Amino acid sequence: MVAMAKLLLVLAVAILTISMVESKLKETNNAEEQHQLERVNGQGGQKNGQGSLQSSQCPEQCLRRCSQTRYKKPCLFFCLKCCRACLCVPSGYYGNKEECPCYNNWKTKRGGPRCP
């Protein structure tokens, strides 16, 4: 019985440790994204007026932007994230990113494009 209690205690500590590590990783990723967005936008993360959309218009614009891709879920996820940050979605289904500098310049850790 005592061995079972010790095992449960070890498991509980392990689960707690794992959840704390996951939480710390999420915080780190969010901080890195915020830092990168501040670099892209300039002015400490404030919107610098380059986007003319309102946040409520993002779903409609991203549905248009992602309508011809096979990968709708990830396209919509990242498009919405980028639109809410940059308040801009390029015209067309692909390319034209020069219309939205923030959208175009926001990169992943590996240097690839973050926004579709």
UniProtKB/TrEMBL annotation:
Keywords: Signal. InterPro entries: GASA. It comes from the Eukaryota. Pfam families: GASA. The keyword Signal applies. Residues 38-59 are annotated as: Disordered. The keyword Zinc-finger does not apply. Residues 1-23 form the signal peptide. Belongs to the GASA family. This is Gibberellin-regulated family protein. It comes from Rhynchospora pubera.
